[in-house]
């Protein structure tokens, strides 16, 4: 990562927040397509392109692709701040305990997993509200007028447990996903820079971020499908009694294919989103810590 020091700090939290804002702005159009494909009725959409076209045509134009973006803009900003901040500070603690500057893949995975678990307390409610808004589609009388209205109604009827619906699969997803995410990014950047990560150029940061993001989703996509199904399930007449019940029903109805709905737009999304996230993170961290960029464009470095 950008900072090789063993001291703890808050710069990573601030830089992570900025990376989160970039993540939402870039990724929201891809994400709404993913959610619709994961929760569609049999044969509702022909594919990702058909889903995208119908959203734009039937739901108010291009701006509809950012439907429900307020909670993730706030939530993802906070969540990404936690992800990067906890990960980097956990790495610093582990470096101090082990006396080693360079951590192994297993150690990096543990740090990422801890960051993911802590992050789940923010991401679970933020994603739940976003997904409820995105799944309303073209309902004649949608139950929620806005993200804020959704939060108020869910909380008033079902309390904090309603807000945290789908929390268990979210914790599982985050723990595995961020173990992969941060360890792969660190490994990839280290390989591309031959261990000199302080001099990583923008193209190497972008590639490492994109690759880490694709590995992230491929590793946990079935869990994400289950999480989405639970978070869009009815409160009053739920189809699923538990996470395991959701897994059983999904498999019995759709087989293994049912756990991979929406993978294509998700993988496409991961490239620009995670490139943008890490570039923004590293650039912000460099500014906060007073790092200088190289003068030559060919040597342009963000950290």
Descriptive account of the structure:
The protein is built from 9 helices and no strands. Helix 4 packs across helix 5 and helix 4 packs across helix 6. It has helices spanning 11-39, 48-58, 70-98, 105-134, 147-163, 167-192, 202-231, 243-254, 263-288. Helices cover 69% and strands 0% of the residues. It has a single domain (11-289), classed as Mitochondrial carrier domain (Mitochondrial carrier fold, Alpha/alpha barrel), CATH 1.50.40.10. The chain is an all-alpha fold.
Name the helix and strand elements from N-terminus to C-terminus, one letter apiece: HHHHHHHHH
How many β-strands, per DSSP? 0
- The CATH architecture would be Alpha/alpha barrel
Question: Strand count, sense and closure of the main sheet?
Answer: none
CATH fold node name: Mitochondrial carrier fold
Helix content: 55-70%
CATH superfamily: Mitochondrial carrier domain
Gyration radius, rounded? 20 Å
**Global morphology:** globular
**Number of individual domains:** 1
CATH hierarchy, class: Mainly Alpha
Show unreliable segments.
1-5, 292-303
Structural class computed from helices and strand pairing: mainly alpha
Treating each run of at least 4 consecutive H or I residues as one helix, how many helices?
9
Strand residue content = under 5%
**Amino- and carboxy-terminal Cα gap:** 9 Å
Q: Would you spell out the secondary-structure blueprint of this structure?
A:
Layout: H1 11-39, H2 48-58, H3 70-98, H4 105-134, H5 147-163, H6 167-192, H7 202-231, H8 243-254, H9 263-288
